[in-house]
Design a protein that fits this description.
CATH class of the largest domain: Mainly Alpha
CATH architecture of the largest domain: Up-down Bundle
Helix content: 40-55%
CATH topology of the largest domain: Glutathione S-transferase Yfyf (Class Pi), Chain A, domain 2
Radius of gyration: 18 Å
Strand order of the largest sheet: 2-1-3-4
Number of helices: 12
Bound molecules: glutathione
Distance between the termini: 52 Å
Mean pLDDT: 97
Length: about 250
């Protein structure tokens, strides 16, 4: 029995939902409120995931954390539909993509996401209350929240993030010359891990960072969206624009 603790709009959760859908694995979904409810910071959840972040998969009573680790776990534990190459060199290439995607664009996408959608959560908090009530309570994200503050990331942070995301599309465009997927002929976890990031950027209105410049990325994204698993993973309520008014990415003048 698989249980997924996650949030509909969380990109890390979407990676795992996409993996589960591709593998046609049934699961019970528990939706956590990452906003005012702070469900992910409650003691019972922290016992499952001491980092206080989503997603967490519980398989037969055992918690598995970290979205990419969960995807690899699922692929090894339930191998009927394989999303990992058999060839060891190809597998290493897939993992290198996954590490890069976690280190660079997954972090980068948080900056415009918070500036454009999540800041209203902190409206009315002065810096001290924000640090005490919002930043310092987070095991993994304390310093991310401190850097952001109640009024959002600075212009230079937004610009650095957009540069990292543009660099990611450039790398993808190059890899997709041997497509249709990032590793070539075979769809893999590498495609799954990047999909929610590009989907988020499209939702925030940044599609022009690849459209018109990176035709293979544009085609790859259309191919991703056409997969039946995609619609299952990105069910209604998965996109920020559906339930949050989006504001400007850069807050200062
Ligand atoms: N490396 C972790 C990161 C998970 C993560 O950052 N999740 C975000 C949502 S995408 C979260 O739970 N944020 C909670 C917060 O901001 O307090 C993973 O991939 O699972």
């Amino acid at each position: 029995m698989l249980v997924l603790y996650n949030a509909p709009h969380s990109t890390c959760s979407q990676k795992v939902r996409l993996c589960l859908a591709e593998k046609q694995l049934p699961f019970e979904e528990i939706k956590l409120d990452l906003g005012a409810g702070k469900d992910h910071l409650k003691p019972d959840y922290l016992k499952l995931n001491p980092n206080g972040v989503v997603p967490t998969l519980v398989d037969d009573g055992k918690p598995i954390t970290d979205s990419s680790v969960i995807c690899e776990y699922l692929d090894e534990r339930y191998p009927a539909t394989r999303l990992t190459p058999d060839d060891l060199v190809e597998r290493a290439r897939m993992r290198a993509w996954m590490r890069f995607l976690e280190e660079v664009p997954t972090s980068a996408v948080r900056v415009p996401s918070f500036n454009m959608a999540f800041l209203p959560r902190f409206a009315g908090l002065d810096r001290d209350s924000f640090l005490r009530e919002e930043a310092d309570i987070r095991p993994l994200r304390k310093h991310f929240y401190r850097r952001m503050g109640p009024t959002g990331f600075k212009r230079e942070d937004v610009e650095a993030s957009l540069e990292q995301l543009r660099n990611t599309w450039t790398r993808m465009e190059k890899a997709l010359a041997d497509g249709p997927w990032l590793l070539g002929a075979n769809y893999s976890l590498a495609d799954i891990v990047v999909a929610p990031l590009i989907d988020r950027m499209a939702d925030l209105g940044f599609a022009e960072t690849w459209e018109g410049q990176h035709p293979r990325v544009t085609d790859w994204y259309a191919r991703m969206r056409a997969r039946p698993a995609y619609g299952q993973a990105f069910y209604p309520g998965s996109r920020l624009s559906e339930f949050m008014p989006l504001t400007a990415a850069v807050k200062e003048t």
